[in-house]
Amino acid sequence: MDASDSKRFCCVFCVKMVKSIPVIFILCILAWSYYAYVYHLCISALGGIASMEVKALYLTVYHIILVFFLWSYFKTIFTEPGGVPPKFRLPEEVFEEFNRIPIDLNRQNAVLRDFSENLPVMTFTNADEHFFSDIRYCDKCRVVKPDRSHHCSVCRKCVLKMDHHCPWVNNCVSYSNYKFFILFLAYGLLMCIYVVATTAEYVIKFWDVTSDVRISGGSEKIHIIFLFFIASMFSISLFSLFAYHIYLVSKNRTTLESFRPPKFSEGCDKNGFNLGCCRNIREVFGKEVILWPFPVDTSLGDGSSFPINKNIPEAQSLLSSDIYDQKSSIGFENSDTQLFTSILINDDSCSNTNVAKYQDLIEI
Q1: Tens digit of pLDDT for each residue in 66-97?
Q2: Where are the transmembrane segments (predicted)?
């Protein structure tokens, strides 16, 4: 390894360590809270507060929640953000034509439109009623962006259904791990509430001047009181974040879409992917309700194409078909769902071959 490679390796290692600081911080807080709860509350201090049966109950419930929290947290951290499928990447000859000098924006838009004819692309960079909207393109990855995907400057790639890049998990929250992230918030909130509820009795006795707990157990008191207040503060922050993301799930929106609504050919629509509350939840958690509490992959679809709200003009003009995909997000019950496979486009600049790219839409 020469000097330049060694320097590059050191720089990359330092950057990774800096990015990992929030995760290390959370794990350190968790390790200390485990020590404070298990040892100081349940083993050392709890003898004067509750019986052995209550002590065993406290420890059992705490460890169950802890296992689910760690499971969800590490799944969120180590699940690779979904990358753009190869079919969205410009072939070399198309890229050369796209990048040919002199640069002509109209020619580039035409190249992208021709290339995207058979791709399930429904959102665009513009929404002008006088011309076909520009195709979303990433010049860093050389790909046509699938619907709801964005380029992450931290991950250095386009990410499918990107919600945001979260420093607390050192990863992009996206299609591939959004369910795990929601469960991480849920179990983190549940753990904080449980710790607050089970330590409250000890904290109340500490403030009681007539209680023996106020007089005895110096270090134990400090650990448990700090644990109570830290869990209370984390409960407030986690509740607000969890409630916000539950709202987003119910509306089938990402954090980015809540600030910048997706643009369809007829204009922006923040409810463009809203299929109704129940179906929106299934999009993230899947059809098997029994698997919802577990951080396993049950999300519907492939992350690159999504059913859209029937109020979007593109969906209203589609013809019905009987195509059904078990894994796709369009695979709801046939009794109340239809899949659409073609669209009528009146713009003369668009070829009828655009039909194929609208095969993943449904009417709700």
Answers
A1: 999 999 999 999 999 988 999 999 999 888 88
A2: 21-50, 56-74, 180-204, 224-247
Residues 340, 136: Cα–Cα separation, whole Å? 23
Inter-CA distances, 55 with 48, 51, 193, 231, 276, Å: 11, 6, 18, 20, 44
**Contact between 175 and 160 (Cβ < 8 Å):** yes
Q: Give Cα 163 to chain centroid, integer Å.
A: 5
Closest CA to 138 of 128, 127, 123, 149: 149
How far is it, in rounded angstroms, from Cα 175 to Cα 299?
8
pLDDT, tens digit, for every residue of 237-246? 999 999 999 9
Burial degree of 199 (CB within 10 A; 0-12, 13-18, 19+): buried
Residue from 306, 292, 259 nearest 122 by CA: 306
Calculate the dihedral angle through the C-alpha atoms of 66, 285, 26, 196, rounding to the nearest 10 degrees: -50
Neighbouring C-beta atoms of residue 155, cutoff 10 Å: 16
Task: Give CA–CA dist 115/90, Å, rounded.
Answer: 8
Of the residues 42, 141, 158, 166, only one is catalytic, namely 166
| DSSP secondary structure of 121-156 | ---BS---TTSPPPBPEETTTTEEPPTT-EEETTTT
pLDDT at 360 over 80: no
pLDDT in tens, 2-38: 666 677 777 777 877 888 899 999 999 999 999 999 9
Q: Which residues contact 284 (CB under 8 A, 6 or more apart)?
A: 178, 179, 182, 249, 299
Instruction: Taking residues 115-136, report their average pLDDT.
Output: 74
C-alpha distance from residue 136 to each of 60, 76, 113, 253 (Å): 51, 28, 10, 19
Catalytic status, residue 14: no
Helix ranges (H only) for the chain are 3-19, 21-34, 52-78, 92-98, 105-115, 178-207, 212-215, 218-251, 255-259, 277-285, 313-316
What is the pTM for the complete model shown? 0.81
| CA 217/CA 46 separation, integer angstroms | 11
| Mean predicted lDDT score pLDDT of the chain | 80
